[in-house]
Write the C-alpha cells for this entry.
Amino acid sequence: MKTLILGAGYAGLAAATKMKPVPELEALLVEQNPFHTFETRLHEAAAHNTRVTLPITPLLRGTGVQFEQAQVDGVNLDEREVTMKDGRVLTYDKLVVALGSVTNFYRIPGLAENAAELKQLSDADEIFNFVNRVFSNEYTGNRDIVVGGAGLTGVELVTELAQRASLLSRERGLPPFQIYLVEAGPKILPVLDDALRAKTEQVLRDYGIHILTGHRLMGATPDSVTVQTADGEQKVISAGKIIWTGGIQARDIVKGEHLEKGPGGRIAVDEFLRAKNYPDVFIIGDMGLALNQEGKPVPTTAQHAGQQGRLTGKNLVRLAQGQDLEAYEPTTLGEFVSLGGLMAVGWMKLPWNQKLAITGGLAHVMKRASEWRWRASID
Ligand SMILES: Cc1cc2nc3c(=O)[nH]c(=O)nc-3n(C[C@H](O)[C@H](O)[C@H](O)COP(=O)(O)OP(=O)(O)OC[C@H]3O[C@@H](n4cnc5c(N)ncnc54)[C@H](O)[C@@H]3O)c2cc1C
C-alpha cells in the first residue's frame, strides 16, 4: 500500500510518527522544510529568537516512514497524482494531505503587500530583525508596530513583543516602541469567557499595549494602516511594521471535481477524516473540515490537528493490516493563551463538561505542559 503523507506540521507529523513498519505498507512523508515547526510558539521566535523547530528525520526512526524534503505544487485527486515543484509526479494508493493553512488578507487593500504574517519561521525572523533594528542607534524610521487581529496569535504576539521592547529599552537606553492591537470585532479573544478576557485586557494595558477593538482595518501602505470605527470615523496609524494575524484559510492546493469545501476553503471529511467522495484520501489539520459531536466544525488548532494525525497514522496501519478504520472523536482538553513571561490565561476541561478557568503561573505551566505533551507524542 503506497502511502504519501504531505506536510510535517502537527497533523502530518503526528500521523507519520504513529505508524509502524508493516510489510504491506510503504510510506513517504513529504515536507518542504527539513524540520518540523512548533507553529504555536512562533510568537516567541518573533520576539526572542527562541528555537521552535526540530529536525524531522530522527523522529521517524522505528516508524517505517521515509522522508523527502520537497515542495508540493499540486494535488489532483481525480488523476490520483501529486505534482512536485521540481516537475516530478508521485502516485499513491492512500494519500494524507496535511499542508495546513495560509493567511487570509480578506482582500483588504494593500494588506497582503505591506503586512508581515506569522505562519512560518521566516515570518518570525522578519519580525525579530525589525525589533532589533529599531533598537539600534542608526535606526531613524518609525518604530511602532501595528498588529491586526486580536485572536490567539495576535494577543500572544503583542505580549511577547512588549516584553522584548521593555528588555531592549532597559539594555540600550532607548524608549520602547508603541504597539497597537487592532481588532474589527467588539472584543479580543472571543473564544475566552468574559472573566479571562478582562484579565487578559488588564495584562495588555499594563504592558502599555493600545487595544483598538471595534476598529476595522481598511487598508495598509508600507508605513501606515487606515482603521475605521463602527460609527464610520477613519484614522491613520503610522507604523514601522504592520503584522496581520486576522485570519486564515485552508491551503488551496488540492483539486478534485467531487470535493466538498466549507468555510475558509476547508475540505469536508467523513467520520474517518477522508475527503468526502474520495475514500483513499485523508485531509487532516487546518485543511480539513471535520465536525464535532454537535455537528460544528472542529477548530483549526494544533491540539485538534495532532489528534487527527495520531488517529490517521493508526488508521493507515489498520488499513495495511486489513482491519476496520476507527472513527474520529474530537476532544478539546482546554485552551491556554500565553501573555508573555510566566503569565497565561485559559481553561481546562473537567469531568461532566465543566471548565476550570486558570490564570497566572499555573496557566503558564498548563500551556507549557501541552507543548511538552506534543513533543513527547512525536518522540
Ligand atoms: C503564532 C501561532 C500561535 C498558535 N497558538 C496555538 C495554540 O496555542 N494552540 C493551538 O492549538 N493552536 C495554535 N495555533 C494554531 C496551530 O498552529 C495550527 O492550527 C496548526 O499548526 C495546524 O496544524 P497543521 O498540521 O494543519 O498545519 P501546519 O502545522 O501549518 O503544518 C503544515 C506543514 O505543511 C508544510 N507545507 C506547506 N505547504 C507545503 C508544500 N507546498 N509542500 C511541502 N510542504 C508544505 C509546512 O511547511 C508545514 O510543515 C497557533 C498558530 C500560530 C501561527
